[in-house]
Amino acid sequence: MVLLKQGREALHHDARSGARRAFCALIAIAGSLSISGCEGEQVPDAGVAQESVQGLAPPAVPPLHGAAARGEMTALGALLASGVPVDGRGVGRRTALMFAADGGATAAAEALLAAGADPDARDASEVTALMLAARRARLDVMERLLDTGASIDLANDQGTTALMDAIRSRDEAAVALLLDRGASLAPASTLGWTALHFAAASRNPAIAELVVPRVDDLEVRDAAGMTAYLHAAEEGNVRTLALLEERGADVTVVDRRGMNAMDHALQKKVWPAVRHLAGRVPPARMAHLVPLYPEAQAALEAAGVDATAADSR
Questions:
Q1: Which helix (H) or strand (E) is 273 found in, with range?
Q2: Can you tell me whether residue 155 is helix, strand or coil?
Q3: Using CA atoms, how far apart are residues 246 and 240, in angstroms rounded to an integer?
Q4: Average pLDDT along the chain
Q5: What pLDDT is attached to residue 9?
Q6: Rounded Cα–Cα distance for residues 290 and 279 (Å)
Q7: Can you list the pairs that 193-197 forms with residues at least 24 positions away whose Cβ atoms lie under 8 Å?
Q8: Would the CA dihedral through 245, 247, 251, 257 be positive or negative?
Q9: pTM
Q10: pLDDT surpasses 90 at 164
Q11: Of 68, 199, 207, 224, which has the maximum CB count within 10 A?
């Protein structure tokens, strides 16, 4: 079924590809299936087809990695006892411990760590087991990794850390765990996003409530010149906007394009944020959008703002 699904994808992604022709050849050889998209296709013979379609098969998962992901402890123990390298690499250069972390297999993770697995091993994208566990809020696995010495502030090839991954998972328990264990708020991704930016953009306001009080500089900017306040406005996070205002964030801040919080809210058509910002931040560059949207006009007029103000661009 996996091969059939991948073959169908080949039909749609590249009508001229060798994989497409090979797939159609196998369907023709089988004789019992008819697939839309193969009509009139010039296909190679069966031998060539079989060889070509091999490239469509997914890479095999090593037995140790599969046992770790599924938490199959008997198989895992037998494989380790037979001498299978505990940090052997599989798909994407991931270790069995990474598979256990991603799958939330706590007992398997414990067994691998006890057998000497490196908690800080990195895959092809510089991702660690802790990052994988944080992405899925695997709290028990996260605790075991940290207890065994996993480095909490390592970053992957995009510059994101386990804390950033936990924030993006929208799970406040995972975020709180990492913060309580001393995760740094200072690292920035390759786009200049810090944990503060991710928290402000999160649709779970409880995340921002965990992060914001721990940050000294609320005006730190990402590569686009965006502050946490601007991110919160862009995502329509009214509770986070109020929290940032309470903590003293600059509500008049603009990004590198000269756009302020109201501009971002208008551009994204997030009306709760527009209503919150009306009377606090008049539009700077997006005033021309106001006449297009009754919601925006009503919000600004209710706040006593001239909804017909000219765009200052």
A1: helix 271-277
A2: strand
A3: 10
A4: 86
A5: 43
A6: 14
A7: 193/160, 193/164, 193/222, 194/220, 194/222, 195/161, 195/163, 195/164, 195/167, 196/220, 196/228, 197/222, 197/226, 197/228, 197/231
A8: negative
A9: 0.79
A10: yes
A11: 68
